[in-house]
Amino acid sequence: MSGARVSLPGVRSPGAGFDEPFAMLEACHDRVRRSLDLLARLRQYLRDTGWDESAAQAARDVLRYFDIAAPLHHEDEELHVFPPLLAGMPRDDVVQLVRQLQRDHVQMAERWAAARGALQALGEGNITALAPAQEEALERFAQGYESHMRHEDGTIYPAARALLDAEAEQAMGAEMARRRGAAGSLSK
C-alpha cells in the first residue's frame, strides 16, 4: 500500500488507516473509551436531568458503536492478532493472556446482548429512565473493557507486531478493509 489512509466512518484519527492496522486497532480502543465515557455520562444525565432528545441520541450513538464497530474490532483481533501469537509465541504467559482475551470477547458479546435493549429503548423513546437491572447490565458490560484493552495495548499488540512482517501487516490491513467494504479504496 502506498500510504493510502482509508479510515472507518466516524474515525477522526488521521493515523488510523488500513495501511497501519495496529494503529487502527489502537485508535479503535480510543473510540471504545470515548463510547464508554458517553455511556457513563448518559447514565448520569438520566439520573440528574432525565430523558430528552439528547439522551436518546447519546443512547443511539453508543448502540451504533457497540453494534457495528466493536464486533468488527474483535473480529480483527480474532483473525489477525491472536492466531500468530498462538502459533508462534514461545512465551506461555502471552499464550495464556490470548486465551483469556478470547474468553473476554465471548463474555463481552454476552454482556452486550444483555445490555443493549435498554439503550435501544432509550434511543427510541420507549423508556425514559433505566431500571436497576438495566443499570446493572450496562455497568457489567462497561467493566470488562479497561483491563482487556490494557492487556492488548501493552502486551498483545506489541508481541503480535513483532511476529508479523510488513507483508503480513499489509495483508491484515487489506482484509480488515475488505470486511468493512473499503477494499476498493486502498492502493497497492
The chain-level structural class is mainly alpha
Low-confidence stretches: 1-14, 184-188
CATH C-level: Mainly Alpha
Residue-averaged pLDDT: 89
CATH T-level fold name = Four Helix Bundle (Hemerythrin (Met), subunit A)
Please, what is the CATH homologous superfamily?
A: nmb1532 protein domain like
Residues in β-strands, percent:
under 5%
Order of helices and strands: HHHHHH
Mass-distribution shape: elongated
Number of domains: 1
How far from one another are the termini? 4 Å
Biggest sheet details: none
Report the strand count: 0
Radius of gyration: 18 Å
CATH architectural arrangement: Up-down Bundle
Key features of this structure:
188 residues, mainly alpha, Four Helix Bundle (Hemerythrin (Met), subunit A), 76% helix, elongated, disordered C terminus
Summarize the structure in words:
This protein has 188 residues and is mostly helical. It has a single domain, classed as Up-down Bundle (Four Helix Bundle (Hemerythrin (Met), subunit A)). 76% of the residues lie in helices and 0% in strands. It has helices at 21-48, 53-88, 92-124, 132-143, 145-163, 166-179. Helix 1 (21-48) runs antiparallel to helix 2, helix 2 (53-88) crosses helix 5 (145-163) and helix 3 (92-124) packs across helix 5. The chain is elongated.
Summarize the structure.
The protein has 188 residues and is mainly α.
Secondary-structure topology with pairs:
Blueprint: H1 21-48, H2 53-88, H3 92-124, H4 132-143, H5 145-163, H6 166-179
Helix pairs in contact: 1-2, 1-5, 2-3, 2-5, 3-4, 3-5
